[in-house]
């Protein structure tokens, strides 16, 4: 007996399209900074030797952590902040051509003030 299967339609995000990501709770969406292509001495690094930088820019923030009394704590970072975070923190995902990170605010170590 043959059974009919439904074809699963894939949804794609158009590159150049605008998509707003709203993290939940105390989570933050970051865009990682580009890795260095040259050392301080001028040596060009191949892709395999490049480390992923632990720096980035905050793209979107959640509402804050839910406390025991039912209120939300204020987030310490805001959109546009440059931050340093733990190197293995967060989950990497792609939206269009952009690679983004989703992590908890606790994984952010410092805000870079310029």
Give structural notes.
With 114 residues, this protein is mostly beta strands. The protein has a domain of 79 residues: 10 Kd Chaperonin, Protein Cpn10, Chain O (Roll). 0% of the residues lie in helices and 30% in strands. The chain has no helices and six strands. A six-stranded antiparallel sheet has the order 4-5-1-2-3-6, with no helix packed on it. The chain is elongated. The termini are far apart.
Helix and strand run:
EEEEEE
Uncertain ranges: 3-15
Placed side by side, the strands forming the largest sheet appear as 4-5-1-2-3-6
Top CATH class of one domain = Mainly Beta
CATH architecture of one domain: Roll
Coarse shape: elongated
CATH superfamily of one domain: GroES chaperonin
Distance between the termini: 68 Å
Question: Into which percentage range does the β-strand content fall?
Answer: 25-35%
Mean pLDDT: 78
**CATH third-level topology of one domain:** 10 Kd Chaperonin, Protein Cpn10, Chain O
Counting DSSP H or I runs of 4 or more residues, the number of helices is 0
Oligomeric composition of the shown chains:
single chain
- Helix/strand-derived class? mainly beta
- CA radius of gyration is 19 Å
Portion of residues within helices: under 10%
Count of DSSP E strands?
6
Question: Biggest sheet: strands, sense, closure?
Answer: 6 strands, antiparallel
């Amino acid at each position: 007996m043959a059974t009919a299967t439904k074809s699963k339609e894939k949804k794609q995000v158009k590159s150049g399209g605008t998509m707003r990501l709203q993290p939940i709770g105390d989570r933050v969406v970051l865009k990682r900074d580009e890795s260095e292509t040259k050392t301080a001495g001028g040596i060009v690094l191949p892709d395999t030797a490049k480390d992923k930088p632990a720096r980035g820019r905050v793209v979107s923030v959640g509402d804050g952590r839910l406390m025991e009394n039912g209120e939300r704590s204020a987030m310490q970072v805001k959109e546009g902040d440059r931050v340093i975070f733990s190197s293995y923190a967060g989950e990497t995902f792609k939206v269009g051509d952009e690679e983004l990170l989703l992590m908890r605010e606790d994984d952010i170590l410092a805000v870079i003030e310029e």
